[in-house]
Amino acid sequence: MPTYEYKCPNGHVFELFKRIADPQPEKCPVCGASPVETVLYPVPVHFRGSGFYSTDYGRGGRKKEAAKESDSSSSDSGSGDTDKKDTSTEKKAAEAG
Question: In this structure, are residues 5 and 38 in contact, taking their beta carbons and an 8 Å threshold?
Answer without folding.
Answer: yes
